[in-house]
Amino acid sequence: MLILGIDTSCDDTAASVVEDGAKIISNIVSSQDEVHKKYGGIVPELASRRHIEMILPVVDEALKKAGITFKDISAISVCKGPGLIGSLLVGVCFAKSLSFVHNIPLVAVNHLEGHVFSSFLNGVNPEFPFLALIVSGGHTSLYRVDGFGAYKELGRTRDDAAGEAYDKVAKLLGLGYPGGPIIDHLAQEGTPDAIDFPRAYLPGTSDFSFSGLKTAVKIEVEKIGRLEAEKRLLTSQPLRFSTPAVLNDIAASFQSAVIDVLIGKTVAAAKEQRLNSIALSGGVSANKSLREKITEHAPKEGIKVFLPPLYLCTDNAAMIAAAGFYHFKTGQLADFTLNPEAYLHL
Description:
Blueprint: E1 2-7, E2 13-19, E3 23-30, H1 33-36, H2 44-66, E4 75-81, H3 85-102, E5 106-110, H4 111-117, E6 130-135, E7 140-147, E8 150-156, H5 162-172, H6 179-187, H7 211-235, H8 244-272, E9 277-281, H9 288-297, E10 304-306, H10 318-329
Parallel strand pairs: 1-4, 4-5, 6-9, 9-10
Antiparallel strand pairs: 1-2, 2-3, 6-7, 7-8
Helix pairs in contact: 2-3, 4-10, 5-6, 5-7, 6-8, 7-8, 8-9
């Protein structure tokens, strides 16, 4: 059973063909990083316009790479939200048009559900029930997954998502966009305990908070700037604020605080729910230090960790097709009244 997945939830235009919800036949992603880099973040209007330009060639390439035509497709699975409403509209309208013209069943998938099922494309799947940590630029949430369609939210961020905090700190430091990979790279050369940044564990809950950490970085940067400005006055030396060593230490200390909270809260939630499997997904799950530390720490607590390959961590249509397979299999079809939703709970 071949499912054509389409995802335009944010700034990546993606299409994929997946067999039986598990085997990726093709997976095409058109990134918009270069479009948004100079603005230090995603510009919604620019994102939706680029989706309009790229959606047809991306879907055509996915079918071509899979060596199939629309006659071979069992269903079209499209992301209906959450995400940027302008971007979502492009994907949903295009999917409905394809469904109508080619008389192919249509299914609608929650973007967060897609992230959960990205773990089912890795060849080694977590067994139900398991704990899902979805950590990206727009989401930081913990879900208990008891089966397809059986999701219970245990916690979410109360302010910034982890990936959003990465992007904002990177912008504060003048590092560019997207911030996650840049900070992760610099952190490898820094000292994680150089700066004692706060960790918001929010005892008694499975919620997250990264706004205070972001503010603490801002205060530290301002303090370092004042100290170096004073040195320039005293020594008349052209010392620069944020030398490579300083940047590396800030990046490493910030990242250490984020990862400590993510791992601490996730492992605690798994133990509280008596679950012995954790599945990570979302863009931040590609972070090198996070992957290393959780695979080192969780097994000591008797918990297995499932990590999707790097190309399935960020937004992609293969995960939408994987989840869509189960919707189609259980007869959960969408009709032409389908509209995207910018805010959508799982």
